[in-house]
Design a protein that fits this description.
The complex is a heterodimer of chains A (350) and B (265).
Chain A lengths: L3 E10 L2 E11 L4 E5 L6 H9 L6 E6 L2 E2 L10 E4 L11 H12 L4 H14 L15 H13 L5 E5 L7 H18 L3 E5 L2 H7 L2 E6 L2 E6 L1 H6 L4 H6 L4 E10 L2 E5 L5 E4 L8 E7 L5 E2 L6 E12 L3 E8 L2 E8 L9 E6 L5 E2 L3
Parallel strand pairs in A: 3-8, 3-9, 6-7, 7-8
Antiparallel strand pairs in A: 1-2, 1-4, 4-5, 9-10, 11-12, 11-14, 12-13, 14-20, 15-19, 16-17, 16-19, 17-18
Helix pairs in contact in A: 2-3, 2-4, 3-4
Chain B lengths: L6 H29 L16 H8 L1 H34 L5 H13 L2 H15 L5 H25 L5 H7 L4 H12 L1 H17 L2 H5 L8 H11 L4 H24 L1 H4 L1
Helix pairs in contact in B: 1-12, 3-6, 3-9, 3-11, 4-6, 5-6, 6-9, 7-8, 9-12
Classes of the chains: A alpha+beta (350), B mainly alpha (265).
């Protein structure tokens, strides 16, 4: 049985269709990222799961119970808002106790104890009596997180959980979220537009585009094997090269714009003609070995990024961007050989 | 250092500010000084200093009764203004409904329109449908002119709160009445306090509505002062006024202590 099932959900705002016949099943304990650009429908989907937004057709089940027509207060879920939405007139502890006050039958003392435990989980029990305005943004977020997990919801929803934090806090919070998910096993769905957040946290990434699922899979699948130009581009950016593909005897060969020919790994659905391929920036290497596909290129500019260096290379009549370990980067000569493992050249659908 | 503003401009500004301050304070100072007068007549400057007139007002049934009436009136007005104005402000800020802005303007109209109009209207209505002016009439009149202040201050308060609070409370399982009592109302505290302060002062101070709604056995403090001035002006008037000034200042200090005045105005 699925912990969450979204079936054929359609949502329109006026003439704009935000979700088009959307289906999603989530297993108990899964950690799901809804990833996509703004306006792709991910936030609306989250609000529909929470019951804060109505849907035009379709159905939602949570923990085996049909909740499509159930008000948010009657769904046993938690939602952490991007703005945290802490109650300003209540202390951290009272904020965390609030869902228990509303939902549990525990005594006041037991509720306080449970709220205290939740604050301990986010390492904030020493600030239990502080008010939100007396806390930093990072601390407020921990309170919001404690408040979301305290009542053991059937579904934990997080709206852009890390976007209001600075880079350093964000890293720490990523670790924290993952740890919390591993120890509590709550079925969690979070919305983000940041691919590194999605890849770093989720068991499964749902990449959304224009109200539909563009592609879904484990972070590795979705990063290494994007199926479309959109997916390749949204996840980390990549070189998209167009090759003229032809079959010669038994193997496939692709021709660059300037006529340079390279072998192309066979793939299902590959047909002769122009075809787009993805080549990750970090898949390109200088001084390729024999197992690699190699071509000659001209280094045009280089940016030193610390441990890595980014090079813009003219090769095959197109510009390729390579991000390589700085110590393995060729910097002296302009003309150089570059290469990549054959499987790194991933064919994309148009 | 290179001055951004010429010295004489700074000097002129300072003089201007002091002048405006004096202009506003002089009437208060005159009243306060007159209240400590030894003279039997309201004259300035007072010929000598004494607490005689404070003794007089404390011993005067007319003043004490009027003071008690005004206090009851102001308290009742505050309670009614809050009870009606707060939900009105919450409804106006939370719901989008047709005619919302019209209703909003109607609620705030007593702020702009002369209270005289309301007083005349009230008098006509009370003479026609009730047994003429009464304490209840005064309460209603004062509630009408003070409620807009409550609506204003509570609305300002509500405009500042995180719009997601209500949704967050819903998701946490709070029903509508729980959200109202535990989430929204506590957010209105400062606005309600400020509104109550305005309502109290306006009611306690009002002479216009009170003049029209003057009932034979109901006399408010401003009416008492007014008739004393008219028939036998003596420094007791100044003494009462000084007490009112002190009372207002105490209220301001209290409000500032509890809620922080900067958050209110």
């Amino acid at each position: 049985m699925h912990q969450l099932s979204v079936r054929s959900v359609i949502k329109r705002f006026g003439d704009v269709t935000v979700l088009e016949d959307f289906d999603l099943d989530v297993a108990k304990g899964e950690f799901i990222a809804l990833l996509g650009p703004s306006g792709c429908g991910k936030s609306t989907l989250l609000r529909i799961m929470a019951g804060l937004e109505s849907l035009d057709s379709g159905a939602i089940d949570i923990a085996g119970r049909g909740v499509t027509d159930l008000a948010p207060e009657n769904r046993n879920i938690a939602l952490m808002f991007q703005s945290y939405a802490l109650l300003p007139h209540m202390s951290a502890l009272e904020n965390v106790r609030f869902p228990l006050r509303m939902r549990s039958k525990l005594s006041r003392e037991e509720q306080r104890e449970k709220a205290h435990k939740a604050l301990e989980l986010v390492k904030l029990d020493h600030l239990a009596d502080r008010y939100p305005r007396q806390m930093s943004g990072g601390q407020q977020q921990r309170v919001a997180l404690a408040r979301s997990i305290v009542a053991e919801p059937d579904l934990l929803l997080l709206d852009e959980p890390l976007s209001n934090l600075d880079a350093k806090l964000r890293e720490g919070m990523q670790v924290e979220l993952k740890r919390l998910h591993e120890s509590l096993g709550l079925t969690t769905i979070f919305v983000t537009h940041d691919q590194s957040e999605a890849l770093g946290l989720a068991d499964r990434v749902i990449l959304m585009n224009r109200g539909r699922i563009e592609q879904q899979g484990t972070p590795e699948e979705i990063y290494r094997r994007p199926r479309t130009v959109f997916a390749a581009d949204f996840l980390g950016g990549a070189n998209i090269v167009e090759l003229d593909v032809a079959k010669s005897s038994r193997s496939w060969r692709g021709r660059f714009a300037d006529g340079t020919e390279i072998p192309v790994a066979s793939a299902p659905g590959l047909e002769p003609g122009k075809h787009k391929f993805m080549l990750r920036k970090e898949a390109i290497a200088f001084n390729p070995d024999k197992s690699m596909t190699a071509i000659v290129g001209t280094i045009e500019t280089q940016n030193y990024l610390g441990s890595q260096t980014r090079s813009a290379i003219r090769a095959g009549g197109v510009e390729l961007v390579a991000v390589t370990d700085s110590e393995k980067t060729v910097t002296k000569q302009r003309e150089t050989r570059i290469g990549w493992r054959p499987e790194e050249l991933v064919p994309l659908q148009m | 250092m290179i001055a951004a503003t010429p010295r004489w401009v700074i000097a002129a500004t300072a003089i201007f500010l002091v002048a405006v301050g004096l202009y506003m304070l002089v009437p208060l100072l005159v009243v306060i000084a007159s209240s400590f007068s030894t003279s039997a007549f309201l004259v300035f400057p007072p010929p000598g200093l004494s607490l005689r007139w404070y003794g007089e007002i404390l011993g005067s049934d007319a003043y004490l009764n009027a003071g008690w009436t005004s206090l009851k009136l102001a308290m009742t007005t505050v309670v009614l203004s809050l009870a009606l104005g707060t939900p009105a402000a919450i409804a106006l800020s939370r719901f989008r409904f047709p005619g919302r802005s019209v209703i909003g303007s109607v609620f705030l109209s007593p702020l702009i329109l002369p209270s005289l109009i309301f007083a005349i209207g009230l008098l006509i209505v009370f003479s026609r449908y009730a047994s003429g002016p009464s304490f209840a009439g005064l309460v209603i009149g004062h509630t009408v002119i003070t409620m807009p202040y409550v609506i204003r201050t509570v609305s300002a308060n509500l405009a500042d709160i995180d719009p997601h609070l209500d949704e967050a409370a819903r998701v946490m399982g709070a029903r509508w009445w729980q959200r109202y009592l535990l989430v929204i109302l506590p957010q209105c505290r400062t606005g309600m306090a400020a509104g109550a302060f305005f309502a109290f002062n306006i009611s306690f101070d009002d002479a216009v509505v009170a003049l029209f709604m003057r009932a034979p056995n109901v006399e408010t403090l401003p009416m008492r002062i007014y008739s004393t001035l008219e028939f036998s002006p003596d420094p007791s008037v100044a003494a009462v006024s000084t007490v009112m000034i002190v009372m207002t200042m105490v209220l301001v200090v209290l409000l500032n202590r509890v809620f922080g005045l900067s958050r209110i105005t």
